[in-house]
Amino acid sequence: MAHGVISEKVIWIRLAVIIIPLLVLLCGINYYEDPANLFHDYNENVAKALLDGREAYFGSGNGDERSVKMHTIRNMPRHVDCITLGPSLAMGISKEHAGTESYYNLSASGLNFNDFMGEIALLEISGVTYDRLIYCVDSYFFDETFAAAVRNPDIMKYAEYMIAKLDGKNPSVPEEKTDTGNIKTRIGQLFSVTYFQDCVDYIRSNQSVILKEKRWGIIDEDTKDLAHYASDGSWVYDAEYKSRTVEDVINSANVYQIEHQFAYDRHLSGYYKDYFEKLISYLVERNITVEFFLCPVCPALQDRLEADKSHYFLMDELEVFAHRVADRYGIRVTGSYDPYAAGVSDDDFWDCRHMRHDRLGDYFDFKE
Predict the structure, then answer these.
(1) Which of 65, 168, 257, 330 is the most buried (most CB within 10 A)?
(2) What pairing do the DSSP bridges indicate for beta strands 103-105 and 79-85?
(3) Rounded CA gap, 161 and 121, in Å?
């Protein structure tokens, strides 16, 4: 038995000798490379740079978008003419498109029900008023697969506050301290093999373990081709992305995961439809001019959806619903999910979902 116990201890020691260095390596690489800037929080720095009228970038091209927007809201002027909210499809709408210098784009990739509710609440709590809201109506608000996803735990307390208000309750204003949710997220990602793979990809793209770019910076002549935020919070893609051809767009349409992204055999959620209308009513009652933007997909992607349209009906339902709500509240609707109805071509896109930002103003009028 003694020999057995000793052997077991030896086994555990040997395992520890192997596993502990691997864990140290995993955590060290995840912390140092940190392509999503989870452990190096410069989101407030970026937001304040934008509010100072400058353009700013993350060295990895990938900061915490929701955190940037939350810091922007907390520090932005107490009144602006116009804001834009929506997913990445709306991130290219700029002050030039909106026709006013008093403008901020508060959109973020994959902006969903919780994000939308949270940002509207934070604007109100922060005392920020706005005359006009350009809202990119997208399935992420209404599709149960995406609507309740939490990309930044700090925004949830504001979403819950807004939901309670829409339910006729009188909720307490959330405290402005950082939630423990982000701490839990960081700990989880520190030990994440998936995040480690992202770090490896980042190392490959840099061709070095040592970071070549600053974690964040102000756009100048040397960095103007990097992906970055314009001073109004809208997004500017990098030079490589902007050089994509129509063939690249069609290829992206051919491999796009339509089953997941376009709600195979799923309908709009009645729960989220109800809250959407409650929120629109809440905004209109406060004399905010709400405008809906329906961003089309590229024709090559629409052709795929049409070929199997008996299973992909959520976007058609959403367009009908958006127009019904718009008619009820006197809201202007710009665009259509159907590219043929919108009159756009594959050449007007950078990929199968995202229109070239310089073409947005050619097809859609966002000016008051």
Answers:
(1) 65
(2) parallel
(3) 7
